[in-house]
Here is the input.
Amino acid sequence: MLQTLHSIIQEVNAARGLQHALNIIVKRVADSTHVDVCSVYLVDQDTQEFVLMATRGLNPDSVGHVRLRFDEGLVGLVGERKEPLNLEDAESHPRFRYFPETGEEKFHSFLGAPIIHFRRLLGVLVVQQAARRRFGEEEVAFIVTMAAQLSGAIAHSEASGGETSGGLPTPLPLTRRALQGVPGAPGVAFGRAMVAYSPADLFAVPDRPVEDVESEVAAFRAALQAVRAEVQDLADRLADAIPSDEHMMFDVYLKMLDSESLVDGTEQRIREGNWACGALRDSIAQHVSVFDEMEDPYLRERASDIRDVGRRILMRLQMDSGDTRDVPEGTILVGEEISASQLAEIPTERLHGVVTARGSGNSHVAILARALNIPAVMGVAELPVGRLENRDLIADGYSGRVHIDPDKQVRKEYHRLVREDAELSQELQVLRDEPAQTPCGFRMGLYANTGLMADITSSLASGCDGIGLHRTEFPFMVRERFPGEDEQTVVYRQVLEPFAPRPVVLRTLDVGGDKPLPYFPVREENPFLGWRGIRLTLDHPEIFLTQLRAMLRANADCGNLRILLPMVSRVQEVDEARVLLDRARAELEEEGVEISMPSIGVMVEVPSAVYQADSIARRVDFLSIGSNDLTQYLLAVDRNNARVAGLYDELHPAVLQAVRQVVEAGVRNDCHVSVCGAMAGDPASAILLLGLGVEGLSMSVSSLLRVKWVIRSFTRQQAAALLEEALTLENPADVRRRLNRALEEAGLGGLVRAGK
Ligand code: PEP
Ligand code: MG
Here is the structure.
């Protein structure tokens, strides 16, 4: 059963659009379950109806014509109840509705399962049979599993515009086309998609319309010919070296290269309008799915040979065409994964945005996008990359949403948001040199979060009180080895010097988790609970000591260094880190370097550190709450997983309680407490943090003036009253609403409307 499910899903995923996918579904389900009828009804949000979209067994002419209201018929009942319905005698059910055009009077038994994607009802999968019988448990389980699996493929296909014409997608006026990813770089990008794919990555090749069909067919034939010669050459060279049985492998390759379905199939697809690379991708995908489905493991293995043949032909095609692409103005670069170098190849003045199916805010490309001020959305798991070339996109780097072919209304709304956002930023410039002081006279420290040299420049111009968090990972990520002590010293001095005497918090290396190093791969089942941050550096004192020595040396002339330890989950880690810091100091002093000892702090970002905040606070000079990880670990929500992005909320009462506990521990132990996660840069959260008694907020520079406006608008007493109210609420959304109302009432509605 698993094998059948798997092969159907593979075929559906390789389909050329929604209609093609649905036709595959009904055919394959009907064949494999031996039922008389299989049909798919999809929801049409515009008319609030179910539409028969594909069928095997009912009258094919009724497709697209049979429509049921949501409260109508057995299909409507399955949709309403959101559970399967298994009937022996469908006509006798009070909700049965008869459609003469379908010819379904012959079929008595009915089994329907809802197709649901992230709680959203997409449609209903139905099987029917002439005989009067209840479907067995196995059959029900199969149909339910099928419907659950198909929901992703259907949503994916829907998002990419569904219908096909001539092998290329054209938009279908169906439902929602917004996909959720995670923010990569702030800003909103409007533009057209250009798909980035690695040479010879066959399944990342996008569709692209072709103008000169004959020359495209000729290019394909030439590539085939070249690969044939290449394989023959390989075979000849190895003829004496390997046994004849193994040698037959090459015959298989050559046969594949001559097979009708590959040659004619690809040519046919080119003639339908797709370019050779895209046509080849589809032929190979179809071939692969046939072999993947085979029971015989040897034959199943053939699928990988076919993939290999496909890659070889693709490489030839790319060599011949040179695949040079003009980059039009307003390009949004789209890909499964995009490397920093692929991004760097695009002229920045033409690049409006970046969208990827994989990766997170810590991917190289996101970091680079931030440095270049280009909005980016990462980790859009359902991004239909192959079908996006040249499509209109809006990439919202604040919320992590991507809109494909946005309608006029969405476009208008985004243009308004962007305009208001720009106007507000302009207006707030007057606050640049004003202190972040409440009307009651409390001075909140406002600091910048940095990680790149570009951030340093913008932070210097922002009027901040210093750097509250400098992430030191970047110089480690861009090299092909660990940076040496001298290299690091230079980098850290470049951060410390321009700010002196204002404080600069350098965080020790926080790799692992979602921040991998290419030259130090750590493969773990569960990297966020694995070897990351201080755990890794304490296990590698040679790496840690090098970094500490470099920090201390850089500070020798500056004197404004503070050191911050990430991912602390037990007090021993603080003690051990202090021992190593003392050792680094002693060594340097022995070497004649004059050291001024920096203050040392701990990031509170793991729940255990919240509960041990008193013990930790006694050991260090400051605590910095890392609300990004703290929220992730408290709520058990992966901060980079778009599927659960809706559950990630730093205004969750549990997070607020945790922050309160840490602040109270700070007060008890005379230890400075600040916040350096994204929460600090959120105007609504900033009110609560002020009310909680946090002494410093560190954020991305773009949020600084907004938060300053908040601090200058609320007294501590007002903020504390709002905090008390918020702490009685049980729902993060209610907390957000209450704070937004407070912002509106205080005349700061612009911060709410700007949507950040
Ligand atoms: C945090 O976890 O809140 C934080 C600031 O650190 P990072 O985002 O680098 O993990
Ligand atoms: Mg963190």
